[in-house]
């Protein structure tokens, strides 16, 4: 019984770390997409304002 547990521990120990890595990667992707969208929105908005003044 102990041998089975000792064998299975290395299989289950990395799972929380992998879940944490997946969570942080998802947050990073969300932040990047939000900032990219805001930048594109500002670029389009400022270009439209320049066309109105011309």
Question: What features would you describe in this structure?
Answer:
- This protein is about 95% helix and about 0% strand.
- The protein is an all-alpha fold and about 55 residues long.
- The protein has one domain.
- The longest helix is centred in the middle third of the chain and has 40 residues, at about 15-54.
- The radius of gyration is 24 Å and the shape is rod-shaped.
- The protein starts with a helix and ends with a helix.
- The model has no long low-confidence stretch (mean pLDDT about 95).
How helix-rich are the residues, as a percent range? over 70%
The number of helical runs is 2
Order of helices and strands: HH
User: What percent of residues are in strands?
Assistant: under 5%
Q: Helices and strands: which structural class?
A: mainly alpha
Poorly predicted regions: none
* Total count of strands: 0
Number of domains: 1
On the 0 to 100 scale, the average pLDDT is: 93
Q: What separation lies between the terminal Cα atoms?
A: 81 Å
Q: Judging from the principal axes of the Cα atoms, what is the shape? A: rod-shaped
Task: Describe, in short, the structure shown.
The chain has 54 residues and is mostly helical. 94% of the residues lie in helices and 0% in strands. It has one domain (2-53).
Descriptors:
mainly alpha, 2 helices, 94% helix
Question: How are the elements arranged and paired?
Answer:
Blueprint: H1 2-12, H2 14-53
């Amino acid at each position: 019984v102990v041998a089975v547990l000792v064998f299975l521990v290395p299989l289950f120990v990395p799972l929380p770390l992998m879940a944490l890595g997946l969570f942080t990667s998802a947050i990073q992707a969300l932040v990047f997409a939000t900032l990219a969208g805001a930048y594109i929105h500002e670029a389009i908005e400022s270009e439209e304002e320049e066309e109105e003044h011309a």
